[in-house]
């Protein structure tokens, strides 16, 4: 079946652009592009047939369909030949049943989609496999692309570096100096990326990488490139698939550059048009209060949006004041009866720590989403009988410094309500037993 996809303006300009064209914005109006699919061709297969096909491929080993992204190739990026796909069999991440935490906060049917359980430790792998594969296809077709570049607060650079290394391409990453964790910094270094540590913030890195790419034929890998959205939208399909093809009531997702919000909604709209789902979940975008331009826009009914200079936040990956995908995200929030909530530094740190006490191991960005959920429950926006999915965007092991400082009570302005440090004792039976029973009694109360 000749499945087809192309770039087209999100604002409605009719001109179509092939996916192998190096283009990120509409030449007519300047808005971002999105990938469009020939839905009439996709609809020739029934909803049941799509579900059956996706289930047959899910987590298998046939190349490339064992990837949860490429197992949905027809609705993601049919333009790449299988021989040019660069995949690490991404996706298929755990949908963690967070019932213990859910009961504590008043929503027993709580789930956490652990997108950080992936090759580079974040959901960015889902989009990067599509983008790097498309670049490999373009190179195979004769296009000269010397490198692929991105601005990043950590996770995007790790994903780009790993996939480029697997493909034999050169990655270039622009990082804001001293604003990414050591585990995040070491990833692109290990995978051979040209790593530029710049004396600016993410927004400054973003401006510079766009200029460098536009003037030097280097391919841009940030989320303004909508190929990434096509991979990231499979999170929606995967969640529904893991719930036996039923949509939850709510999805809570942390937002920085806001490509993830756009991708989440796009996946559900696709499934709705194909007849796979009959209802949409509501979407809540969670922002750190120190980097909250979308939340401030939400307070105006999403009628106005003004970029702001993001302040330092523990949730460093979403420390973004001028998100490139804001118009896409606003469109999705309006279509999904969405809400935006914010989390202070104290709230996000303690939310992550509380979740950890129930068996999770949360990055600070997941803490933002969880603390936003707590607020939405308190407001009555999220009901006690709702099925709720929180998107965990990265693995907690990328943020061990954050976690250690929390438990040592060394995070400025944070009251560590769930701190838990080792108890240093002499190696004697009596002292050990006395301490154990004292702690058991204290924790029981």
From TrEMBL:
Biological processes per GO annotation: threonine biosynthetic process
Organism superkingdom: Bacteria
EC identifiers of the protein: 4.2.3.1
Organism: Candidatus Abyssobacteria bacterium SURF_17
Record protein name field: Threonine synthase
Alphabetized NCBIfam families for the sequence: thrC
Residue positions, PTM N6-(pyridoxal phosphate)lysine: 124
Pfam families, sorted: PALP
Family membership noted in the UniProt record: Belongs to the threonine synthase family.
UniProt cross-references to InterPro entries, sorted A to Z: Cys_Synth/Cystath_Beta-Synth (IPR050214), Thr_synthase-like (IPR004450), TrpB-like_PALP (IPR001926), TrpB-like_PALP_sf (IPR036052)
Domain Tryptophan synthase beta chain-like PALP residues, every copy: 86-393
Alphabetical UniProt keywords: Lyase, Pyridoxal phosphate
A GO molecular-function annotation: threonine synthase activity
Cofactor(s) demanded: pyridoxal 5'-phosphate
